[in-house]
Amino acid sequence: MEPKVPFDMNDLKSVRLPKINPGMIGWVVVAILLLALVYSAWFTVDTEEVGVVLRFGKFTRIADPGLNLKLPLGIERVYKVPVERQLKLELGFRTTKPGVRTQYSTKKYPEESLMLTGDLNAAEVEWIVQFRIKDPYNFLFRVRNAVSTFRDINEAVMREVVGDRTVDEVLTIGRQEVASTVTVKLQELCDQYELGIKVDQVVLQDVNPPEPVKPAFNEVNEAQQEREKLINQAKSEYNRVIPKARGEADRTIEVARGYALERVNNARGEAAKFDSIFKEYLKAKEVTLQRIYLETMNDVLQQVGKKLITDDKITGILPLFQFEKGDAK
What we know:
Blueprint: H1 22-39, E1 42-45, E2 50-55, E3 58-63, E4 66-69, E5 76-81, E6 87-91, E7 95-97, E8 103-104, H2 110-113, E9 114-116, E10 122-133, H3 136-141, H4 146-163, H5 167-171, H6 175-193, E11 197-208, H7 214-283, H8 285-301
Antiparallel strand pairs: 1-4, 2-3, 2-5, 6-10, 7-8, 9-10, 10-11
């Protein structure tokens, strides 16, 4: 069955093509070339960037943010470098979804994170490096693939710093010191290699023992925590008992000193009193003897109760006194 043709083939003979003016074609080509020249002669640089302009592959100038002109048709090429933006490099882990609730990749990167500490223990170190591009020319042309080189430098420096410390320092008390040391060493190497990078901060994201040794490591940590707990309890008891005992000892010493001082002062007073009495005695011995006798008898008689003193020559007076038992002797 032959296909149906929607029109008669004989009608094609009567169709006339429009006449094309060669001059018009030339003007169209010229217009297209002019548009291509104008479009390729300008470029825009964002506020956080600068443009590095190359002419035939050779560096010529740095273009500031805004609208800029360049030679068209590939004579000059522009590389835009974000010099005002803080960039981030993740090592040992990757972020899959940044935001308020950041999600991290479940994939492990042991070639980056697994390290050997100074006490021959293994640790998985994950960290972030925040940096800026301070020299766009060095960043683009001094080192091939500067970001990859910077990543390799990070791994080397972190392994060096972690290898100089114990696993306890890396996991606990020495994390900030490790980050600060890595920051300084990174900047020194970046300046030495002329990477054009300024290191802002190194942050240890997470430091853990490797999965196969985590149970044993946790047991060691629990034992160390129990040890620290007992030490703290002993110190607390020591701080409670020893100061009290020292205070009691100091108080006893002070009481003894006070008692000794009192006895010495009393003795000195008695000696001074005796000296003064003796001086007066030398002046009037009879009067002094009589006074001493009377003072002594006054003190003694006040303590012995009732006494009856009579002349031993008097007789017959006994019935005159009514003695009660224990009243007189």
